[in-house]
Amino acid sequence: MEKNNTNKTKSTSGRLQLRTKACIFDLDGVVVDTARYHFMAWKRLTDDLGIKFTEKDNEHLKGVSRIASLDIILEIGGKKLSASEKEKLAALKNKWYLEYINRMTPEEILPGTLDFIDDLKSQNIKVALGSASKNTPLILEKLKLKDVFDAVADGNSVHKAKPDPEVFLKAAEMVGVEASRCVVFEDAYAGVEAALNAGMICIGIGEKEILKDAHMVIKGLSEMDLNKLSDLEKRLGNE
Predict the structure, then answer these.
(1) Most exposed of 40, 52, 141, 233 (fewest Cβ within 10 Å)?
(2) 26 assigned to active site
(3) For a pLDDT cut of 70, what percent of the chain falls above it?
(4) Residue 47 catalytic?
């Protein structure tokens, strides 16, 4: 697969003495921007329900399970539904979402992702995916990323939603690395909390005011390189 070289991360030659032995990436908003597809599907559903739903509202759904997201939306709209009705609506939303992500291409991989992963592999650092999404296998297939990660923990293999640390602990177990030597890349508040609950270093991707609990916040993986990871390790070691 051709690499996405836009805003290429700096390659670090030679070996660095890094304490980190595994990096775990969330999928949505870190490796690929599926947030817009989620918004399109939720907006379609909320329009049918007569609920006003904005992109700002959609921000609160990041890293949250499908049913929990629907609960938030129903609260916004002041509506109450039975468990069976919610299951049907969640399934309908997912049907529409799948229609959108079936059109995805490798060009939608976010800038810097593949270059940074290559740099990690050059240091024998394991790379894993930790996502709550049950659609992870399909997205990886569409992006041609199935063989890039050493392990994938997703909504099909774990049952507790973030901020529970289960998905990240599962990913660490799959690559055989203890939690304290893992670094998580997350774009959602719930995901940052999950990483911290797992006892892992967390690098937030997005807005500092939202991800303030992360050990470091960047705009995207295009800003990340091995030297920054080394500097973060040194800073945390001195605190």
Answers:
(1) 52
(2) yes
(3) 93
(4) no
